[in-house]
Amino acid sequence: MLRLKYEQIADQLAKDIRRGRLPRGARLPGEHVLANRFAVSRNTIRQALAELGSRGLIATHSGKGSFVTFDGRPLDDRIGWTRALAEQGVHTAVEVIRLELVGDPDLAERCGVESDEFVAVDRVRSIVGGPAISFECTRVAARGRLRDLPGSGLDGSLYDVLRAEGLLPEQGEEWVELGQITEVEAAVLSRAPGERFLRARRLCRDRNGIFVEHTESLLDPDRFRLHLRFGGAE
């Protein structure tokens, strides 16, 4: 099967890492250096680095920030929760209950994008053989392969499709509050109306400020937490 350019670059860097050419804990060359080495754009390099991260071969570190934890374990949401949870030994089943093109002028204005057309991806996530733990309503720009999702379906990770489009969530904002779920939400989650869930709203952009996704989630507070880290060296 033909490998995409960023996948070929990721394969080569993976070989360098496994053969010891890039020692454990060593800092990778910068994007500009790698782009020159492989004669590709920096965006392609970012896709390759994201692929290495999804394989667990590299990690990024920052001095401060916030991140979601599940049962006290941090989740790397840059690779998608299904994969992030699996890496923590938690296996989940995801049911896509909505996948369609929608128009949302209010969301377009809030996200600062010109087009008010989005792809709606609504999913219920459950522990395998157990209860639902989240209800995630995501909106992504209706462009490229993303626009085709309602017709082609979403068989794998939405983050893989985003990455293939060169859209890597690297910055953004998140708002979290505790609230009661409605009757409609309770029916989706197979819970009782009025149960308390964490309501999270997340807006992600790439490093250039381009819109990547907007997600509103209901998270089981018995399993999910929001961890805030601050101070220390930048």
Automatic annotation (TrEMBL):
Superkingdom of the source species: Bacteria
GO biological process: negative regulation of DNA-templated transcription
GO molecular-function terms, A-Z: DNA binding; DNA-binding transcription factor activity
Pfam families, alphabetized: GntR (PF00392), UTRA (PF07702)
Domain HTH gntR-type: 3-71
The keyword Transcription belongs to this UniProt entry's keyword annotation: yes
Keyword Transport: no
UniProt KW keywords: DNA-binding, Transcription, Transcription regulation
Protein name, entry field: GntR family transcriptional regulator
Organism this protein belongs to: Kutzneria buriramensis
